[in-house]
Amino acid sequence: MDDKFNKIPKDKFEFADGGDVYHDKSLSTKPVGYFRDAFNRFRKSKAAVVAAIIIALIVLFAIFAPLFNTRYDSSFMDPYYARKVPRNIALSKIGIADGTVSRDSSEKGLIYNLSIGIGAEDGEGKGGISSKDAMDGYYQPVKKIGDKKQSAGSSIYPIKLENYLEVGFIYRQIPRSQYAEIVEWQNQTGLRVLYPLVADNGYCPDPTEANYWYKMDSRLNPLRVGADGKTSVISYNDNNFTLEDNYLRDEAGNPVYYQYAGGGSSAENAEYKVRVLYYNYYRYVNGFEPQYLFGTDSQGYDLALRLASGIKLSLLVALFVSVINLFIGAVYGAIEGYYGGKTDLIMERISDILSGMPFIVLATLFQLHFAAKVGVIPSLLFAFVLTGWIGTASTVRTQFYRFKNQEYVLAARTLGARDRRIIWKHIFPNSLGMIITSSALVIPGVIFNESMLSFLGIVNLGNSSTTSLGTLLSDASAIWTNCPHLMLFPAIVISLLMICFNLFGNGLRDAFNPGLRGTEGGNG
Amino acid sequence: MRMFKYVVKRVLLMLLSFFVIITVCFVLVRMLPRNLPTDKNLAAVIEARWEALGYNKPIIVQYGIYLKNIFTAWDFGTSWYISTLTPAWDVIVDRLAPTVLVNLYSLLFSIPIGLLLGILAAVKKNKWQDTFISTATMIFISVPSYVYAFLVQYFFYYKLGWFPAIVSSLADAGGSWLSPKMFYSMILPVLALSFGEIAGLCRYTRAELTETLTSDYMLLARTKGLTRGQATVRHALRNAMVPILPMIISSFISILGGSMIIEQIFSIPGVGKLYIQSIQLLDYDVFMMDTVFYTFIGLLAGIVVDISYGFIDPRIRMGER
Question: Min CA distance, B37 vs chain A (Å)?
Answer without folding.
Answer: 19
